[in-house]
Amino acid sequence: MNAFFQTNPEWVERLTLVLVVVPSRTRVEKYAELKKEIERLVSEINGQLGTLLWSPVIYMYRSLGFDELLALYACADVGLIVPLRDGMNLCAKEYVAAHADGQGVLVLGNLAGAAHEMLEAVIVNPNSAESIVKGLKEALEMPGPEQEARNKDMAKRLETNDIHAWTAAFMQNLEETLAMQRQMAVNHLDAAQADKLVQAFHNARSRLLVLDYDGTLVPFSDMPSGAVPDEDLISLLGALAALPMTRVLILSGRDRLTLAAWLGKVPKLRMAAEHGCYSWTGTEWEVEESVMANTTWKSVARSRMQETEKLLAGSLIEEKEFSIVFHYRACTSQSATFSLDRGKVTKAVLALRSALQSTLSGLPVQITDAKEALEVKAFGASKGAFFLRLLHKLEDDPDFVFAVGDDNTDEDVFEVCEGHNACHTVRVGFCASKATHNLFDHNEVRKLLRRLLQS
Hints:
- By secondary structure, this protein is an alpha/beta fold.
- 42% of the residues lie in helices and 17% in strands.
- Helix 9 runs parallel beside helix 15 and helix 13 packs across helix 14.
- It is elongated and about 100 Å long.
């Protein structure tokens, strides 16, 4: 108020602030200190500017009855409600409701939740004295017709958005949340469901198996280079790919050179590397044209990752052609002699993610969370997008599709499959997923694949 009167001296002896402080938590020391500070400021302003006939501030330290409060709202030309955090929303709405004649101006702080609903109020920044002074001046000088128009719109919105509307919206949101939970619920693939899946595979005239690699066909390794396929897996994949009317695709985030070295000799096996950026023809790799080829952003991402790598022993950076990955699995591995506190690792990775989002904002990249890894990849590098393109390219529409994966990158594939009766999707690990079923680990996946082979 002092700042307002200094810049607007014409309002001296014409404007009075009625400050109502309702006693609360009177035994709390901080509240007692705040009360003393308020009273000191009120005394200072009244002492400097007040006269025998006028006080700039009327200070009331007590609760007001409803009738008193309603009368105060109704006679106030301006309702100045500027909380420093979300709150005082009911007061703002009561002020508008009390002005049945449409007169009066609500000045509302932008941190109050009601500011998003009462858009016709004069919105100010409660942390800026200049903003409050400007808003108060605007309110005091606002023409009557404009006051009526603003209050009419707010009053109409208050009548519509009453407790009944709020309750209905709350219940609708709750029902939608429950429906989403049911949709995302863990559904372990039991024996009966597995039998139906195997039978559907057996009856199909055209089959497509889409298999992730790490965590799906092989267990995770502390070092990416350690997840080498064993002879049993190579034999299983070869036998499946050799089946008539059956296509087998390894759709992985792995780089193409590693996939080619590990699985390139399996006859008829299809592969897609780096989340679908490259596809294996059987003799060579083809790059997908839809992927953004400009990867100049990798140097920025690498620099950020290197800073975090210095903080986390056991972490490492894996660089591919269209992506760069920060691995931190070994940081908390039980087998590691330098195992770090998981909380420290999580905090560092979250900070890295935030830094990457900030520095790479506006660039053609995606930042994704994998199993104990953080990946920055080129825009267009998506398993789901690749899978969709593959379906369009196939000469015949498969009447049996089996897709299995273990992390968030595989959810894009599951999403494409949603609603298609021919698709059977499995998420490895018991977590919420768009997949129709879950399996415990790679051993269960291999067991199911063997059943398909024997059908």
